[in-house]
Amino acid sequence: MSPLSGSKHSVIAFALIFLSGGSLLLAQEQSATAISHQVREIFERCAKAVVKIHGVDEHSEICGTGFFIDPTGTLYTAYTVGGEAGNFTIEFAGKKYPARQLLADIRSGTAMLKIDETTPALPIGKSEELEVATPVVAVGYPLDLPETPNFGMVAGFDHKYLGRYFSTTHLRVNLPTQRGEAGAPLLNMKGEVVGIVVSSLENNSACYAVPIEAAEKIRSDFVRFGEARHGWIGGNISEAPEPVEGSRAEMTQVMEDTPAARAGIKRGDILLQVGRMLSDGTQVPTAADANRAMPLKLESAAQTTP
After folding, report:
1. Rounded CA gap, 40 and 49, in Å?
2. Per-residue pLDDT tens for 170-206?
3. pLDDT score, position 198
4. How many Å apart are CA 101 and CA 122, to the nearest integer?
5. Could you tell me which residues come within 8 angstroms of residue 143 by beta carbon, excluding any fewer than 6 positions away?
6. Closest CA to 69 of 225, 154, 168, 196
7. Secondary structure element (H or E) that encloses residue 237, with its range
8. Same domain flag for 175 and 245
């Protein structure tokens, strides 16, 4: 092969690499544009059911975000917004409406308010379909600004943070939040609600959202019983220094006249399984597993424990 022929092949190879790189950049730009259009479409469609909430607690005025979940004016928000305040006002469709609290549940971190108007409502999705790196969108009212979209992705499914156990699994989302966005709906790319933003992480660089199923369970309890009803055992659990039969879930306190006390559980006992006499009993190798399993199965477990 002549030097000239080799040079031609090098030029052709370089050209192919350049074109390949250009195609990759073009594909990335097209993908980013498609995502941008999708986020905008979700925002324009869903923002109609997202509201700004004003209230007054014992210290000062509060403001946050909420969203309608049925056409009769029922809405979800975070407990920090609608849990301990009063004199609520909702900004919706360019008008202000008085709102009343239906339910506040500090354990799930959610609250329900209601206005007496016909309203749009957001469709409910399933947080169980989410995975790490699943893209999500939030719509909220940061500070004194109008409704604002925010785009991020699921970063994890956490049972505790900085040593504090959650009552249910929380969605950790790489989505920066600001004051006023607590209570915002977390949406999948279909525009369905999969969570409720309840708190910010350090430096507001990310946030935690309660899975929508937790809020829906509370709403179902309210409809049936007029209050939230949680499974409980009547004791505190922490990590034991050494495992017993693979479990470190140690009972560190047992309250009087509770399911735990009536079942004969004592301080220092290791909890091996929740729903022990049920066919689908849940193994609890850690305190986090116990906390996660109890709201689901403990009432049944307490009834069947000898």
Report:
1. 15
2. 999 999 999 999 999 999 999 999 999 999 998 888 9
3. 97
4. 19
5. 178, 179, 180
6. 196
7. strand 235-244
8. no
Handedness of CA 103, 180, 69, 86 (dihedral sign): positive
> Cα separation of 29 and 16, whole Å?
20
Is residue 173 domain-resident? yes
Whether 101 and 160 map to the same domain: the answer is no
Residue pointed to by tokens 């900085």: 162
Q: 231: how many CB neighbours lie within 10 A of its CB?
A: 16
Strand 164-174 versus strand 282-283 pairing type: unpaired
pLDDT exceeds cutoff 80 at 299: no
Cα 183 to Cα 29, 79, 266, distances in angstroms: 33, 8, 39
Domain ends where: 55, 79, 114?
A: 114
List the domain range (segments joined by +) for residue 246: 235-304
249/237 Cα distance (integer angstroms) = 6
Determine the length of the chain.
Answer: 306
Q: What is the pLDDT of residues 82-94, one digit of tens each?
A: 999 999 999 999 9
Distance CA 187, CA 136 (A): 6
